[in-house]
């Protein structure tokens, strides 16, 4: 059986396990992976805060004191409505050159590729100088304390490494007519907040005697929508602009150039130049004929790495202005970065040079959130997001994640296995 066939089969088996979070039930995936790895001489352990939500950690121990590498992934997925799909979301069906099913892209495909990489190296007799670790964790999609952050706190020895490869980037994109592979070295902070807008209740038939909190909230939402934050450059965005434009540019110049010449480049760059604000949820009266005395507005806010809620809050309060409302942050997390120019970065570059010599690795900051944050914060691990995809169009892939008809190209699965094997050898050494 080829590695391509092997990763396809393992992915199909993983998709057929319903690990939708909540409730998760990731133990079934951990047990499947444990049994698969054991069959190829790789020892693993299950770590679980509760029995049904286990994390798997497998290891090829280093024998020479070299650098250690963690291949990181998560086994929970988001909900799928079969009525919206052309195929059963938990079938793992192969259609043509693709495997269909929930999690194929996010991120059972990478789980399978990482597992195949460490298993295939083990059966070939690879002996790393530094530890090679594979972790398939629970609870990334919701983050309620069963997955990697719990491991970092309660079993740090299991997941502490010098370097880590995780989800977050890897797609091939053509920008300004040149090929690039994105590699994420940083991520924005997820810093949501709520506005509790105060008013006075009354009967909806007599609006003049009430003070409608929902109407007052509308004005605040409009102010947030109209706000244009200051544009700023971080090291990864500076490097990205230099690589694509071939020159140093200020943030406004770079965005103007991208908008004028390459829509994909503009879409990639814009959210990485400032904090973003997206009002997404609102709750007011429970009855149509009752004017609400309280309106709650939920805002998805993403801060640049190293920005803090304390730094940004005065700016947001100035944007909102005076009013009858309370401002509350909701569990800010993330906002970390890893340095460039490391042995792991060199491994990614040498892999890309091998598969497409004319392409360039492009450092990016992830606008969303990944588990890499926990490793950087707990151990100072250099963590990058890189799972290469060359066959599937990146815009199609972006639309399929968390959506109906999620699927992955088998060629991209095989490419990922090749990448993780290459990174393991280059970073941990040995033979």
Structure commentary:
There is one protein chain. By secondary structure, the protein is of the alpha+beta class. The protein contains 14 helices and 20 strands. It has helices at residues 3-15, 27-38, 108-123, 148-154, 156-159, 213-226, 235-245, 251-261, 263-269, 309-320, 343-355, 372-379, 394-400, 410-428; strands at residues 43-48, 54-60, 69-74, 94-95, 98-100, 132-137, 163-166, 172-175, 178-187, 189-190, 193-198, 202-203, 276-283, 290-291, 294-303, 325-329, 333-334, 360-366, 382-385, 407-409. A six-stranded mixed β-sheet has the order 1-2-6-3-7-19, sandwiched between helices. Strands 10, 11, 13, 15, 16 and 17 form a six-stranded antiparallel β-sheet that branches. Helix 8 (251-261) packs antiparallel against helix 9 (263-269). The protein starts with a helix and ends with a helix. The relative contact order is 0.19.
> Helical amount among residues, as a percent range?
25-40%
Count of DSSP strands: 20
Question: What fraction of the residues are assigned to beta strands by DSSP?
Answer: 15-25%
**Oligomeric state as shown:** single chain
- Unreliable stretches (pLDDT < 50, length at least 5) are none
Sheet with the most strands: spatial strand order: 1-2-6-3-7-19
Strand count, sense and barrel status of the largest sheet are: 6 strands, mixed
Name the overall outline.
globular
Mean pLDDT: 96
Give the number of helices: 14
What's the gyration radius in Å? 23 Å
Provide the structure class.
alpha+beta
């Amino acid at each position: 059986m080829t590695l391509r066939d092997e990763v396809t089969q393992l992915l199909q088996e993983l998709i057929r396990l319903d690990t939708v979070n909540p409730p998760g039930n990731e133990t079934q995936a951990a047990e499947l992976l444990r049994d698969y790895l054991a069959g190829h001489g790789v020892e693993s352990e299950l770590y679980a805060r509760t029995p049904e939500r286990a994390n798997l950690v497998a290891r090829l121990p280093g024998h020479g004191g070299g650098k250690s590498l963690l291949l990181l992934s998560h086994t929970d997925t988001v909900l799928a409505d079969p009525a919206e799909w052309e195929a059963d979301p938990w079938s793992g069906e192969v259609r043509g050159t693709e495997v269909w099913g929930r999690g194929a892209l996010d991120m059972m495909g990478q789980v399978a590729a990482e597992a195949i990489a460490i298993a295939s190296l083990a059966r070939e007799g690879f002996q790393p100088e530094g530890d090679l670790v594979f972790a398939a964790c629970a609870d990334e999609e919701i983050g309620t304390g069963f997955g990697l952050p719990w491991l970092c706190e309660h079993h740090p020895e299991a997941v502490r490494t010098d370097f880590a490869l995780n989800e977050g980037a890897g797609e091939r994109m053509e920008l300004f007519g040149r090929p690039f592979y994105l590699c994420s070295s940083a991520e924005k902070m997820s810093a949501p907040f709520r506005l509790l807008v105060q008013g006075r209740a009354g009967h909806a038939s007599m609006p003049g005697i009430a003070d409608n909190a929902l109407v007052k909230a509308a004005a605040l939402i409009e102010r947030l929508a109209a706000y244009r934050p200051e544009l700023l450059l971080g090291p990864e965005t500076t490097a990205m602009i230099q690589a694509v434009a071939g020159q140093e540019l200020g943030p406004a110049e770079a965005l103007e150039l991208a908008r004028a010449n390459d829509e994909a480049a503009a879409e990639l760059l814009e959210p990485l130049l400032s904090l973003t604000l997206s009002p997404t949820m609102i709750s007011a009266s429970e009855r149509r004929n009752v004017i609400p005395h309280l309106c709650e507005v939920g805002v998805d806010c993403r801060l640049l790495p190293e920005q803090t809620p304390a730094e940004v809050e005065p700016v947001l309060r100035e944007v909102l202005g005076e009013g009858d409302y309370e401002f509350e942050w909701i569990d800010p997390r993330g906002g970390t970065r890893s340095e460039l120019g490391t042995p792991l970065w060199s491994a990614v570059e040498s892999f890309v040079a091998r598969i497409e010599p004319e392409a360039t690795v492009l450092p990016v900051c992830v606008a969303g959130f990944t588990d890499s944050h926990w490793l950087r914060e707990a151990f100072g691990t250099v963590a990058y997001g890189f799972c290469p995809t060359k066959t599937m169009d990146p815009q199609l892939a972006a639309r399929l994640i968390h959506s109906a008809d999620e699927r992955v190209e088998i060629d991209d699965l095989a490419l990922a296995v090749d990448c993780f094997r290459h990174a393991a050898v280059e970073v941990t050494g040995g033979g």
